[in-house]
């Protein structure tokens, strides 16, 4: 962490551990104070509960906020609730409403994730961009993730819809998405960004886990976004 640096808060994907931010945080650490939120293993929490948790973490500080995958709707809700405290919103490989039919997500919530062959799972998450270290990390996380918590999060995804919250946001917004992400299609986010106006989207040569397989490139875009946002903010204040 850099003393006096602006702060970025990272919200994790479905696993909720924050452990998969290690590479990204390493690249961001020279420019930001990086705070990684780790969700409790509590199946009673829904999106409202996660948003409250994140608001409590942020307190009264002004921060950049990044929501990855599952946490995109959390980040959007928090940004709509905290207003000017959010200096910029980053949405990585995520969605505004359920990216798959609700019935399919609810059915998936009842499946043991360890029954999916690792090669298939890794292809879905990383495509050809993964590496042995990352695959091993994902294996550990899947093995240790509470099944009731995973099921509850998938059911929450099936019901979520933050399009109205997103439409009302006034903070700078940057969406990051993988060109080869078929777990969460980039099309819906592209359309939302176009309708929003004043927001940008960058598409990377990556699958779903773009922040892990392309951490250096993603961090460079995040840093550039923050510097650009700060410059515009300074211009308006003058």
Secondary-structure blueprint of this entry?
Elements: E1 6-11, H1 22-28, E2 32-36, H2 47-58, E3 63-68, H3 72-82, E4 86-92, H4 102-108, H5 118-126, H6 132-144, H7 147-159, H8 163-168, E5 173-178, H9 186-196, E6 199-204, H10 210-213, H11 215-237
Parallel strand pairs: 1-2, 1-3, 3-4, 4-5, 5-6
Short description:
This protein has 238 residues and is an alpha/beta fold.
What does this structure look like?
The protein is an alpha/beta fold. The chain has helices at residues 22-28, 47-58, 72-82, 102-108, 118-126, 132-144, 147-159, 163-168, 186-196, 210-213, 215-237, and strands at 6-11, 32-36, 63-68, 86-92, 173-178, 199-204. The chain has one domain (6-237): Rossmann fold (3-Layer(aba) Sandwich), CATH 3.40.50.1820. It has a 6-stranded parallel beta sheet with strand order 2-1-3-4-5-6, with helices on both faces. Helix 4 runs antiparallel to helix 7 (147-159).
Pick out its properties.
238 residues, alpha/beta, Rossmann fold, six-stranded parallel sheet
Distance between the termini: 29 Å
Give the total of domains: 1
Class from secondary-structure proportions: alpha/beta
CATH topology: Rossmann fold
